[in-house]
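Fig. S4 source data, part A: sequence.
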Amino acid sequence: MASSVLIPVNEYLQTIYHPDRDYVDGELKERNMGEQPHASVQAILAGIFRDHRLDWNVRVLTELRVQTKPTRYRIPDVCVLHRSDPKDRIVTWAPLLCIEILSEEDRLQELQTKVDEFAAMGVQHIWIIDPWQRVGYIASTQGFIKLAQDTFSVAGTPIELSLTQIFAELDED
């Protein structure tokens, strides 16, 4: 097994990777993606948030670097910011919402580490969508809670998304 080469944080920040990678304490971490269900759900979510950006007062970005710790940068599949948030290259504050879309190769332990980092930086809303099992989860440092109803929502905002509608649109593709 080859040992991994540590990359300085400034080199990571000045380099463009295709696809982009998480950066964890000097190591580049590949992200599972590139499958149609994953990409389709990501596009559907970005479209929903884009369509509602004015009435929900948000901006939606996909595959944006979020600095969770001084030497850690994570890339949520979908990142939702307040419209008033700065338009910096990298997010260094808690986004309103981070959404992860599962790929078949994703492991819950690795995802939990990412969720813990988002929560530690103050992200209060973390959603997980599994396009393979057709379920959604609310994620926190305590783990994953399967969505009891069909709807994701953000308390205190008009943001509300139906899993049934998301998966129906996925089936249209």
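Fig. S4 source data, part B ends here. Residues 36-51 form the longest helix (16 residues).
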